[in-house]
Design goal:
By secondary structure, the chain is mostly beta strands. Helices cover 6% and strands 67% of the residues. The protein starts with a helix and ends with a strand.
Length: 387
């Protein structure tokens, strides 16, 4: 019952934020832009299966961003939609849709109330997920420091194919509700911002038991140390966060892992080096596992020439470690991308990527993906107005 009280509190606060925004019309800045894209190509093994079956594919993409007001006193709407169609005998179409509404209003000169409402839908050959998230955040911002706190409620439905056993989807989704509280502080310096935070989360599943008779309810506590700033022209971001998760029903072992994020973007004249590394978590419905530890690394070198052209060479690795299942999936990719600005909002892209996947218990052929695309950006922004 306590979780539903928190959820009701958040729902009541969020409309108050948006109504306050509607009353402030003294000075309005507006951003309104959209991008549509069409990509096509061929993937020699889109399912990363033991028997490679290649397929041509076509991807339609739409992005729309609308913002009105300012960062402290305004609201915005963001929509992303992507649909990829393959040969129906090889793999089903995949979808990825996300709609996000954000709002902010100042309560005092330094205190800001923010709200975020997100709905998302993901469907691939191996994963189906629907989720809705509602978050309210208070932020007290001064010249040398910043204090913040938030309440978040997330409802999700997840269903995954057990590809380690070449299985199909579950007969029903696993539905959960997660309530998270967070508090933190940050100190501002000439080299950037450094801070600490701590979060506590409680996840409860609507079904008492999963399909093999286990209870997946879990609680998590996660302190965090973070930094973001610029040093000698390089943009740096990083965080270190020890995760402590436990399961009240004792059907799964407690989990302690060090999570982290690290990003560096280094300009070198016409070249840019981008390095990223992270270890995060996501939910899973695979048997004997609730948490998927996702470790990712990427190095990218981008060269810009003749003003309108850019070429990127990248190498990346992703490891999915399903805690409790003793199973891992490792994906390594090497690729080359090209982009050209065609003026009038048009841009052309081309890419070729080689991919190697290794899964516990499975032998998977290497794959190659070749793609070309065209996109068009539309600007609907209006000039700044005064009431």
């Amino acid at each position: 019952m306590a979780y539903f009280k928190v959820l009701i509190f958040i729902i009541l606060v969020f409309p108050a934020t948006t109504s306050a925004l509607a009353q402030n019309t003294d000075r309005i800045a507006e951003i309104n832009s959209a991008t549509i894209g069409l990509r096509g190509g061929y993937d020699s093994n889109p399912t990363d299966g033991e028997r490679a079956r290649g397929s041509a594919f076509v991807t339609q993409a739409l992005n729309w961003d609308y913002a009105r007001g300012s960062n402290r006193d305004g609201y915005g709407l963001s929509l992303t939609m992507q649909n990829t169609t393959y040969h129906p005998r090889v793999i089903a179409a995949s979808l990825a849709n996300n709609l996000t509404f954000t709002a902010a209003t100042p309560l005092t000169e330094a205190l800001t109330l923010r709200g975020v409402l997100t709905a998302s839908n993901e469907q691939t050959w191996s994963r189906r997920q629907n989720a809705a998230l509602l978050r309210t955040r208070l932020e007290y911002d001064q010249e040398t420091f910043r204090l913040f706190g938030s309440l978040e409620a997330r409802a999700g439905a997840l269903n995954e194919r057990n590809y380690f056993a070449l299985g199909s989807f579950l007969p029903r989704d696993e539905n959960s509700l997660t309530v998270t509280t967070l508090a933190g502080a940050a100190y501002k310096t000439t080299y950037g911002e450094i801070g600490v935070s701590a979060s506590a989360a409680r996840t409860r599943y609507l079904e008492d038991y999963d399909y093999i008779g286990f209870r997946r309810d879990n609680d998590r506590v996660q302190p965090n140390l973070f930094y973001a700033g610029n040093v000698a022209g390089a943009t740096l971001e990083g965080s270190v966060s020890p995760l402590n998760a436990w399961f009240p029903a004792k059907d799964f072992d407690s989990l302690r892992r060090l999570l982290y994020t690290a990003k560096a973007k280094i300009p070198l004249g016409a070249f840019t080096v981008a390095l990223t590394s992270s270890r995060t978590t996501q939910e899973t419905t695979l048997p004997f596992s609730v948490i998927d530890l996702v470790t990712q690394h990427e190095a990218r070198l981008t060269a810009r020439f003749w003003e309108k052209n850019a070429v990127s060479l990248f190498v990346r690795q992703k490891i999915d470690d399903y805690y409790g299942l003793s199973a891992k999936a490792t994906t390594r990719s090497l690729g080359l991308e090209y982009a050209r600005n065609l003026d009038n909002g048009f841009a052309a892209t081309a890419a070729v990527t080689a991919r190697r996947v290794r899964e516990t218990g499975n032998s998977i052929p290497d794959a190659i993906n070749v793609m070309i695309g065209l996109q068009k950006q539309f600007e609907f922004s209006k000039a700044e107005k005064k009431s």
